[in-house]
Amino acid sequence: MHIRAAKTNDVVKISELVTSLSHFYLTKSENELPEWFAQTLTHSAFLKRLESHEYSNFIYELDGEIIGYLAMKGNSHLFHLFVSEKHQGKGLSRALWEFATSVCISNTYTLRSSIYAIPVYRKFGFIESDTAGEKDGISFQPMELRV
To answer: What residues contact residue 114 under an 8 Å CB cut-off, 6+ apart?
Structure first.
């Protein structure tokens, strides 16, 4: 298992991984993703971010399978962090985070966490930086980490 920069030929697997976990953003898990959110998870949306100089994209691979994905926007905004359900709780999120912050160096990091992931980010040292929000059934918590 290892962490590496994501490549354009990883797009399909990354999209499948993130889409399989996107229900964690929903206020009610039985609801459908709003169209605007679903559009951010398409192959073309991931390809656009992978090809953009504005984003740094990393994957965690195990036996050729992508089991984790992290995207940073600029050096300071954690845009995506997803680990497959069967591999959660094993430290992969932390490993991806530590790898990303060794490359994307900043004094302050920000993110908009799913409500589900708040405990993970608190363990990294993030704190809530504003009140939780909700848009079209997607709940999120702004968070910040000062280093």
So the answer is: 24, 25, 139, 140, 141
Looking at the predicted structure, is the pLDDT value of residue 29 above 90?
A: no
89-129 pLDDT, tens digit per residue, is 999 999 999 999 999 999 999 999 999 999 999 999 999 99
At residue 93, φ and ψ (nearest 5 deg) are -60, -45
Residue with tokens 């965690």: 60
pTM for the model stands at 0.95
Q: Are strands 108-113 and 77-83 parallel, antiparallel or unpaired?
A: parallel
Q: Tell me the domains of the chain and their CATH numbers.
A: 2-146 (3.40.630.30)
Closest by alpha carbon to 88, among 43, 24, 30, 140? 24
Element (H, E) at 16: helix 11-21
Reduced to 3 DSSP states, what percent helix, strand and coil does the chain have, rounded to the nearest 5? 40, 35, 25
Distance CA 16, CA 12 (A): 6
Residue 30 · residue 82 · CB < 8 Å: no
